[in-house]
User: What shape does this take?
Amino acid sequence: MELSPGKLWGLRRLADAGGRFKMTAVDQRPPIKSLVASRRGTAEAPYEDVAAVKALLVEELAGSSSAMLLDPHYAYPGAARHVRPSQGLILTLEDSIFVETAHGRRSSEIDGWSVAKIKRTGADAVKVLAWYRPDADPAVSAHQQDFVATIGDACRRHDIPFVFELLVYPFPGDAGHTTDYVEQPGKRTEHVLESVATFAHPAYGVDLFKLESPVGGANVSEPATDDGSIQGTFDELGRIAGRPWVMLSAGAGKEAFVRILTYAYGAGASG
Assistant: This one.
């Protein structure tokens, strides 16, 4: 990859001195809002409570992180002050509410926010999550591709890194269907790899991939018992990405995620 000065400097701000991306995500909205509402016994989570939880998370976890990922509505207003000057700051741009159709999900930007506005906040990078299935309805796939390409173009214009998170998901008729931000039950490896291959094209302008395991967390065995097939799948993921990439947990438990990270680091992941 060739990086412009702004993108290179932004990526350096997100990593530690050894070039590792130890980024802590505090941009979750439905999971934290649901937890707060449940504890409060209310239908909706009070804004002040959600913001306070996020501020506490940032304050407590900042010391172990090279960068913090915040959402503009809850985390940024109250928690940005806890991000240390030596750390990178990433703001998310995708709306947590997506359109669910019978044959795919459509993503959109947060109303009133843009790459330009994120740049004006002083953030070091823009993060976007897009749901994607290579077997979705062609119109849905085209919408998702246009959504990502438009943001990639804006990141190029404003010379700011584009951190792209990619998640496969179940269709409404699939077994175990859920709209929660969790790993798809029974996900297919080829769906993950084909999705990454699509957005690895230079037209999308992705600088850093935030990827899920290509193998279901429940099926990731201890590396010592692997016959080479699981590591080979992770190696293929890294090859297809073709740029720095980090592994997201997708809701995996601690022990499973440690196993996943072992394979990911073996395949060249940077965090």
About this structure: The domain at 5-24+81-266 is CATH 3.20.20.70 (TIM Barrel). Residues 217 and 256 are 6 Å apart (CA to CA).
